[in-house]
Amino acid sequence: MKKLIQKAEILLEALPFIKNFYGKTFVIKYGGNAMVSEKLKDNFALDIVMMKYIGINPVIIHGGGPQIDKTLKALGIKSQFFEGQRVTNKETIDVVEMVLGGKINKEIVSLINRHGGNAVGITGKDGDLIMAKRHKKGKKQSAETNRPEIIDLGLVGEITKVNPRILETLDKNEFVPVIAPIGKGGDGTTLNINADFVASKIASALKAEKLILMTDTQGVKNKTGELQSGLTKKEVAAMIKEKVIKDGMLPKVKCCLDALKAGVHKTHIVDGRVQHALLLEIFTEDGIGTQIVEKKSDLKTSSTPN
């Protein structure tokens, strides 16, 4: 009986969150180890189905870097990166589109539907959802000449416009969109785009309640290595200036800041290696990752389950 009562208490703890989030849109970037482990993949699908059944509208953008690397290696094509971005030529973009828009996207859709959901897989090219331009060439220091060297990233996209009409149509018909991060250039060229950037821009276009980035780290940590459960834009700016936030975490945090600036209410960086990470972050008082918000009053408290 004690265990049953504890279960009831857990459900009651989630009640104010469920009430507050009913009808709201959550944009979720799904990637990292959560896409590799079979158990975590199953957990993710169940979390999405539950969110939909209680009235939340999840929109999923997925990555797929390790799977692309594996396929390229099998085909004898070498992977090259610059500042975390994949250098993408014509040969590589064909593989990227095949893996992201075909294999991975359909696997996610199938798993959600198997658990009782109603998901539909699309890419950023469908319905002109994501319009983009070629990313500007990067620079690095040449070891031979000790001078800046131009790096052409190839068919890597920088988002110029998001047309959310197709997502609004899917939402009206109770579908869960699962989006591969591939954009369309002005001349129809297929462009590879970082999934975090896509999630941030789509959340901004939809004025989503939340942007949630699933990662392979606990969240944002301070200079002594302690996880920060909640940060304001001002605190984040200070941590960037002091180089506490750096390397791979820096672009993720910047995606959060961009989304907040565009009107997204809250952003989250969550450890996707934790079972049911989404539910634990959304429906518990403290969550498990890092919230990044506009101001202190937007952070969770017992009286405001936002």
Describe the structure.
Strand 1 (25-30), helix 2 and strand 2 (57-62) form a beta-alpha-beta unit. The strands form 4 sheets. This protein has an 8-stranded mixed beta sheet, with helices on both faces. A 4-stranded mixed beta sheet has the order 9-6-11-12. A two-stranded antiparallel ribbon has the order 3-4. The protein is an alpha/beta fold and 306 residues long. The protein has helices spanning 2-21, 38-53, 65-74, 90-114, 165-172, 195-206, 233-241, 249-261, 277-282, and strands spanning 25-30, 57-62, 81-82, 85-86, 119-123, 130-134, 138-141, 148-151, 157-162, 176-180, 182-185, 190-192, 210-215, 230-232, 266-271, 290-293. The chain starts with a helix and ends in a 13-residue tail after the last strand. Helix 3 (65-74) packs across helix 4 and helix 6 packs parallel to helix 8. 39% of the residues lie in helices and 23% in strands. It contains 9 helices and 16 strands.
Helix/strand layout:
Blueprint: H1 2-21, E1 25-30, H2 38-53, E2 57-62, H3 65-74, E3 81-82, E4 85-86, H4 90-114, E5 119-123, E6 130-134, E7 138-141, E8 148-151, E9 157-162, H5 165-172, E10 176-180, E11 182-185, E12 190-192, H6 195-206, E13 210-215, E14 230-232, H7 233-241, H8 249-261, E15 266-271, H9 277-282, E16 290-293
Parallel strand pairs: 1-2, 1-13, 2-10, 5-10, 6-11, 13-15, 14-16
Antiparallel strand pairs: 3-4, 6-9, 7-8, 11-12, 15-16
